[in-house]
Design brief:
Blueprint: H1 6-21, H2 26-37, E1 42-43, H3 44-51, H4 55-67, E2 72-75, E3 82-85, H5 90-117, H6 124-152, H7 155-164, H8 167-181
Length: 186
Amino acid sequence: MNALSPLVRSFVGHFGEMGSRWGINRTVGQIYALIFVSPVALNADEIAEQLEFSRSNVSMGLKELQAWRLVNLRHLPGDRREYFDAPAEAWEIFRTLAEERRRREIEPTLSMLRNALLEAPSSDADRVALERMRGMHDLIELMTTWFDDVQRMDQQTLAKLMKMGSKVQRLLEFTDKVKVVSGGKR
């Protein structure tokens, strides 16, 4: 990593450490960080050289990043090697990560909960368990519906919504008051 600028070296190192906290291999995090900040697509040999990793480690990391759809495979004219780049837009990366997490973690959980909720309770303990599972199922369903709505928003609208923060609560409280004042039943 000595060939990297101090700025890039710091980012790559930090991303590796954070990657391990996010449930990915430190090496994979560093590979991704290097590809993300690179102004040009990189091949596996360049990545291995710049990060001082073995070629096999880089190959495995690239496969994982491809499985997460975080890097794009490119071929350059006249060159048989595979090159990799990453979307430069942070919003696109966030959406991809969120979609992959949903596909890998949330959908299997929802499927399991749906199947469990079809079971008839055989004891009081099972009734309590099913009641709690139903609450979890309903919350996850609500969150995935919200997530679908958010995923369809354009970037500017989503940024405005996020910047509103707790103001959304005040807006909802205000609309509830308007309903009551205008004769709506509550």
